[in-house]
Input
Amino acid sequence: MTHDAPATLCLVGLRCVGKTTLGRRLAEHLALPFVDLDDELEPDRSGPARSAGECLRDLGEEGFRDLESAALERVLREEGARVVATGGGVVLRAANRELLRTRARCLWLHAPSEQLVLRATSDATLRPALSTGPPLGEWQAMEEEREEFYAEVSAARIDASGDPAEVLALLIAQM
Output
């Protein structure tokens, strides 16, 4: 990264676009720590850890977004370079977008909704539905709602529909 760029690199985009997988690979390539924001949702680690899906299911969307915002603020206020995989909806709150714009360099991973639905159905990770409609309609609605926010915080939009090694090369080219 250039010396004047923020030390933290955040990957943003819809669910199942590859933020965690690619974030780990990018962090390894750059020899930086990797943070999955979903793993940072609960500051009190004394009880059993809950996945992001369990937090969403148990707390509802507002409670989940409160945890997500607090985790984002904690992670982005820490010193030192790192790669962060954010949650797909982290951009929904204006305060989060401000943090992402001012405290990190963001890259927006994008893939067609049809591909993301296929990835989600082949993944055992708990991902509660955010609507009662068909999955493809849900993904398309999420994309429509969030697209301008991803664009607002991101330095570049990366096509994440290909092989992870190819997408990693595209990410590295943005450094």
Notes: The chain has one domain: 8-173. The radius of gyration is 15 Å. Residues 52-77 form the longest helix (26 residues).
